[in-house]
Structure formats: structure tokens, C-alpha cells
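User: Please fill in residues for this 250-position structure.
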């Protein structure tokens, strides 16, 4: 049976869930003792939506979070509802700004996945597209790394990424694949037009079939001896370059 709910921890992650998707909150645990301002606010917010906090020893929180830094709060909640690809495509005609998508091909590290969500939110991406299989599942680690973005940036989960890329190209979205071996840099790309940035897995990069669906490729120029960047860092540079271009043009 597929997972229907999960535990998330950390002040930003829990606060965002209570604020943006209160109906998804199921149980809340808070550390015993005097609560800081942020934790006190979380307690009040939780009580206001009808979820009575359970006050527990720190060791209980440590056990529930598998030893992760939890900042004294853990929430059991429902999984966020994915955005159907068809719904996103249907709204494009009425969208005021050109499409900007982050497309992740088999990102398997939950810290990277969460960090990519956080960057996508900060850069104003429309949504993040992920593969349903061979992608890090949504978890407490993903939510903590996303720092609240799990509930503010839409996630589109697809079974067949190649078919999805065909659908996006058909509605005029230009697909730029990340490849540190190509000559064109991310700064050479025109991202004022509808754009989908496609980044591959931590170990192997873009898969062959995914590469075939990209319109062109771009790299981030490196000045040192390291050949490439972590996928979440590359995501940040690429998405914010897109936003820089759009701000300059506006």
C-alpha cells in the first residue's frame, strides 16, 4: 500500500504545513519544557486548527525523527497533493508570465530534492516536475531541506518523463538540459521565453532518452578545478539566472 502520510520536523517545515495545508496536519509533538517564540506560535496554530499538541521528552522526538535535528517539533501529516500535468498545461494560456519549470530526472538524494524545492520556490518557478519512480520519495528529510517549500511550490509527478517533455515542447516550452561538457553556458541561453530547465541525477546526469528530448544544452562555467556542481547548487544558479533575465527585460 502506498504511503499516505509521513513525519516532518523542524520549525520552518512544520510551520509551513500548518499555515498552508492545515487540513493535512494529523498529529503534533512538541518538546517538554519552556517553548521558544517559534514553538509557542506553532503550538497556538496547531490548537487553532484542532490538532492538540502532545508534549513529550526530547528523546521521544529524537526517536521519531531517527536522530535528525528536529528543533523540538514533529508533525505527522498527509502527503502534499501533486499538481496534474494536464492542469498545469491548461492554465498556461492565462498565465501572465512565461512558463518557468524545474524538471528533475531521477534525483535520488532527499537533501538535494528538498533543496531544489526550496530554490524553485525562491526563484518563482511555476512547478517542479519529478519522475514517479527512481526519485527520492517525500519524507521528513525532504521537507526539512525544503524549509517550507514542500507546501508552496507545486510538484508534478510523472510516470514517463520523455512523454512529458514532448507534451511541454508541444505547448511551446523550450527545454534546456544541464550538461557540463557542452560549449554553451547558462548565461548564453534566452530564458525570457517559456523555459524548462532539465537537470539529471547526482551520479549520471541526464538519461539518454531525456537528453534526446531537450532542445539544447547549457553548462555553468567553472573557474576552478572542480568539474561540476551539486544539483541543488546548479539548480539555484540556473533558475535565478532565468529570473535575472526576466527582471532586466521587464
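Assistant: Residues filled in for all 250 positions:
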Amino acid at each position: 500500500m502506498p504511503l499516505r502520510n509521513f513525519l516532518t520536523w523542524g520549525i520552518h517545515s512544520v510551520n509551513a504545513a500548518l499555515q498552508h495545508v492545515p487540513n493535512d496536519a494529523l498529529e503534533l509533538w512538541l518538546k517538554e519544557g519552556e517553548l521558544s517564540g517559534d514553538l509557542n506560535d506553532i503550538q497556538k496554530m496547531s490548537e487553532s486548527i484542532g490538532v492538540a499538541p502532545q508534549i513529550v521528552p526530547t528523546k521521544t522526538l529524537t526517536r521519531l525523527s531517527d536522530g535528525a535535528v528536529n528543533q523540538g517539533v514533529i508533525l505527522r501529516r498527509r502527503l502534499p497533493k501533486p499538481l496534474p500535468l494536464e492542469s498545469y498545461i491548461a492554465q498556461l494560456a492565462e498565465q501572465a508570465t512565461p512558463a518557468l519549470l524545474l524538471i528533475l530526472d531521477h534525483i535520488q538524494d532527499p537533501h538535494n530534492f528538498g533543496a531544489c524545492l526550496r530554490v524553485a520556490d525562491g526563484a518563482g518557478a511555476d512547478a517542479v516536475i519529478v519522475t514517479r519512480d527512481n526519485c527520492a520519495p517525500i519524507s521528513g528529510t525532504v521537507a526539512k531541506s525544503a524549509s517550507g517549500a514542500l507546501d508552496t511550490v507545486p510538484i508534478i509527478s510523472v510516470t514517463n518523463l520523455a512523454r512529458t517533455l514532448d507534451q511541454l515542447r508541444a505547448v511551446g516550452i523550450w527545454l534546456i538540459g544541464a550538461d557540463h561538457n557542452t560549449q554553451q553556458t547558462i548565461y548564453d541561453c534566452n530564458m525570457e521565453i517559456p523555459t524548462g530547465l532539465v537537470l539529471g541525477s547526482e551520479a549520471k546526469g541526464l538519461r539518454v532518452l531525456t537528453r534526446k528530448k531537450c532542445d539544447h544544452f547549457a553548462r555553468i562555467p567553472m573557474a576552478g578545478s572542480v568539474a561540476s556542481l551539486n544539483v541543488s547548487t546548479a539548480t539555484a544558479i540556473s533558475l535565478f539566472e532565468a529570473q535575472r533575465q526576466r527582471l532586466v527585460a521587464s
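For context: The longest helix spans residues 231-249.
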